[in-house]
Structures are given as structure tokens and as C-alpha cells.
Amino acid sequence: MTDSSPKFRVVYRGMTEETAQRLLKENVFTNKGFTDTTVNPWNACEPLDDERRDTYHNLMAINLPEGAHGLYVAEQEMIVLQRDLTLKCIGVAMFDSAHIAPDGSPRNLRIFAMEMKS
């Protein structure tokens, strides 16, 4: 992170079902542009909440290595990571009825544990 940002070790990124299925098969995610992430897992789920209510929200939990750099936008709880980012999936876990939404109602989560590849 930049010097002015807090030290975050895990950030989150939501993804579509199509991306999740591709990640389950290929085990690697690459983004040629900048990768926006958030420190708040609900912010990563919320954009797809209406279409995901009866299934799983797919969420990347990205472990940032020591010394990782990015742009921290405090007002949006967002960290923008560098271009040409490649992430490797090191595990997947499913949680039924997780209380992550601000309204207190449960959501089903499928979390992909991700590490940055060098």
C-alpha cells in the first residue's frame, strides 16, 4: 500500500458466477487492467446481491504480501491494485447463512482464497 494507507493484509473482490466457474477449472485469475478491491467484504458482494440471493455470492479474499502497493481510497473503502495482476487460488470455502449484509439477513458465500503470483 502507499505510505498514507493503513496496513491491510486481506482485501476482497466480488466476481460473477462465470468467473468463479472459470477459476474453479483454471485456478488462476488475471486482470490486465487495474484491480479494484475493498477492505469491506459486503462492498464486494453488494453489486450482485439481487441476482445472487438464491445462490452463492462469489468472493475473492486476496492475501496481500508484505510490501504490496496500491492506491487506497478511504471514502469508498477501496484499494486499487496494480495492472497485469495474476492471482492463484489456494482454496475455496462455502458458507451458508453468513451474516455479512448490513440489513442482518444471511447470505450464502463462496470464498476463494487467493495469493498474488509473481
Short description:
This protein is α+β, with helices and mostly antiparallel strands.
What's the total count of β strands? Answer: 8
What is the first-to-last residue Cα distance? Answer: 17 Å
- CATH domain class name: Alpha Beta
Strand order of the largest sheet: 1-4-8-7-2
Q: Share of helix among residues?
A: 10-25%
Major sheet details: 5 strands, mixed
Number of domains: 1
Shape: globular
CATH topology: Toxin ADP-ribosyltransferase, Chain A, domain 1
Rg on CA atoms, Å: 14 Å
The CATH superfamily name is Toxin ADP-ribosyltransferase, Chain A, domain 1
Count of DSSP-assigned helices? 3
Order of helices and strands: EHEEHHEEEEE
Mean pLDDT score, rounded?
Answer: 88
CATH architecture label name: Alpha-Beta Complex
| Strand residues, percent | over 45%
- Structural category is alpha+beta
> Which regions are unreliable across 5 or more consecutive residues at pLDDT < 50?
none
Description:
This protein has one domain: Alpha-Beta Complex (Toxin ADP-ribosyltransferase, Chain A, domain 1), CATH 3.90.176.10. Helices cover 16% and strands 46% of the residues. It contains three helices and eight strands; from the N terminus they run βαββααβββββ. The strands form two sheets. A five-stranded mixed sheet has the order 1-4-8-7-2. The protein has a three-stranded antiparallel sheet with strand order 3-6-5. The chain is globular. The protein starts with 9 loop residues before the first strand and ends with a strand.
